[in-house]
Write a structure and sequence with these properties.
Blueprint: E1 2-5, H1 9-27, E2 32-36, H2 43-51, E3 60-65, H3 75-91, E4 96-102, H4 109-118, E5 120-123, H5 129-141, E6 146-147, H6 149-157, H7 162-175, E7 180-181, H8 193-207, H9 210-222, H10 227-249, H11 254-261, H12 265-272, H13 278-297, H14 302-315
Parallel strand pairs: 1-4, 1-5, 2-3, 3-4, 6-7
Helix pairs in contact: 2-3, 3-4, 5-6, 8-9, 8-10, 9-14, 10-13, 11-12, 13-14
Length: 322
């Protein structure tokens, strides 16, 4: 049992690949890797995959990325998961492995104890600006592409995660092979802090992270971003989330959904992991419509309206009249 935790999904995935490659070299055979949908899989489903010996491989690696229950400490939301994982860990299986990924160490003391006693917790720290600049330069250099210092600084300071930057670097490598990238060649990278904070806000809402969403909202309002723009951006992101959830219910994979919707795979992956349900989305969009009307037609305090909405969406606090 392995827990990989850290702020960058790109680095977590790289570490996971290293683990799988180590197992492959040890056995001389490719392990079976099973990726479970963290938002849809039930405890009984995880238990089944951890009990079955693979038929066509020597080992099975079961991966759950950012399960929402992992960082919660409420007994009602994690007790069943604790039971399944404890039973698996104590059985000391030789051919079965469970890998969990998270932004931070688990809030559950039980799972934290199980990892310490029966597995391994591996922190995968993020990288600083200088390391990020070196990574960008190296990635482009492998494709015969150079980058001007001002363009490099834009990418480093954009605040985008490494998955997003990796996609941008792939595009630059394809379009500018043998050339030097300038700021004019960059697309889709918000250099304005306000635009980035909108992204932070919508991302936090999709994850139902109240604290991060309120902090991003505060930054936006302090910089004077129009409230109507904020509402529009939130609505656009939630509509996209609804489309992703609908396609998931039809059995489509994350990669297929990204292709059908024309969105970056990393963005769809985040939405696949979102703990928001259809009822949550229906409620959130209804509240957004009410706030949009209030902002345009009443004198109510805009900050209070938005803050109340964020808390309601993230913490499922629905008014009695709903």
């Amino acid at each position: 049992m392995i827990l990989l935790w850290g702020p960058e999904d790109y680095l977590l995935e790289r570490r996971l690949k290293e683990i799988v490659e180590t197992l492959k070299q040890y056995d001389g055979d490719e392990p079976e890797v099973v990726s479970l949908d963290s938002g849809e899989t039930k405890p009984s489903g995880l238990e089944q995959y951890l009990a079955e010996v693979p038929l066509f491989a020597h080992r099975r690696v079961v991966v759950m990325r950012h399960p929402p229950w992992l960082e919660k400490s409420a007994k009602s939301s994690i007790k069943e998961w604790e039971t399944v994982i404890e039973s698996f860990a104590r059985s000391k299986p030789n051919q079965l492995h469970l890998v969990l990924t998270a932004d931070k160490k688990p809030g559950s003391r039980v799972i934290d104890g199980l990892v310490k006693n029966h597995g391994e917790a591996i922190e995968v720290p993020g990288i600083g600006p200088r390391q990020l600049a070196d990574w960008i330069t190296e990635k482009l250099g492998k494709s015969g592409v150079k980058i001007r210092q001002d363009a490099l600084e834009v990418l480093v300071k954009s605040g985008r995660d490494m998955n997003y930057l990796a996609r941008e670097l792939e595009r630059l490598a394809l379009c500018h092979r043998g050339q030097t990238v300038t700021t004019d060649d960059l697309t889709g990278v918000e250099t304005d802090l306000g635009s980035f904070s909108v992204f932070q806000l919508t991302d936090a809402l999709v994850r139902k992270n109240t604290r991060d969403a309120l902090q991003a909202l505060d930054t936006l309002l302090q910089k004077g971003e129009p409230v109507t723009l904020i509402v529009h951006m939130i609505a656009r992101e939630l509509v996209l989330l609804g489309k992703v959830k609908a396609l998931l219910s039809r059995g489509e994979s994350a990669s297929t959904i990204a292709r059908l919707l024309g969105k970056q795979p990393f963005r769809v992956d985040k939405m696949v992991r979102s703990p928001m349900t259809r009822e949550d989305l229906r409620f959130a969009l209804k509240r957004l419509a009410e706030i949009d009307f209030a902002v345009k037609n009443t004198a109510q305090d805009h900050r209070l309206l938005l803050e109340t909405m964020i808390v309601e969406i993230c913490q499922n606090r629905r008014r009695m009249r709903d």
